[in-house]
Amino acid sequence: xxxxxxxxxxxxxxxxxxxxxxxxxxxxxxxxxxxxxxxxxxxxxxxxxxxxxxxxxxxxxxxxxxxxxxxxxxxxxxxxxxxxxxxxxxxxxxxxxxxxxxxxxxxxxxxxxxxxxxxxxxxxxxxxxxxxxxxxxxxxxxxxxxxxxxxxxxxxxxxxxxxxxxxxxxxxxxxxxxxxxxxxxxxxx
Length: 189
Fold this sequence. Notes:
Elements: H1 14-18, E1 24-27, E2 30-33, H2 39-60, E3 63-66, E4 71-72, E5 82-83, E6 87-90, E7 102-103, E8 108-112, H3 120-136, E9 140-145, E10 150-155, E11 163-165, E12 170-172, E13 181-183, H4 184-188
């Protein structure tokens, strides 16, 4: 008796990802969709974006991006080929076709936790994504925790020794955005 196997699923491409409605990333040749987030995580991401834009427009250069901006990177060992952080800062070139993804990783990426980003499995997933960011060339990743009211800063230079900012402190994104700071109290208000 012989077994007939279904034909292999074709590997998804950046072009396939560009046609997806909503937030998604390309990982291992598959389009991975992400759930929409709630009010508080979205408000926090919006505040980060707003202040990043102020920073970029103050003569520092670079571009600020909201949730949903795609960054295309060469395939990483994990299979990842794109990122879509909740807020980001990018000093690389604008794509020739401004309707397309940026080529290269963001300098700074903020990942704001939503209700499903807690627990051991979520922690492992977030750690793996940070590793991918750093392998791709991102300098700083923030893990923003609305429940704890903290911002944990990870750097490519020392990814195993993060800095956590809490109430009464200002979080920074050095060296990705030199001189840029956000009061944690304002961010979490």
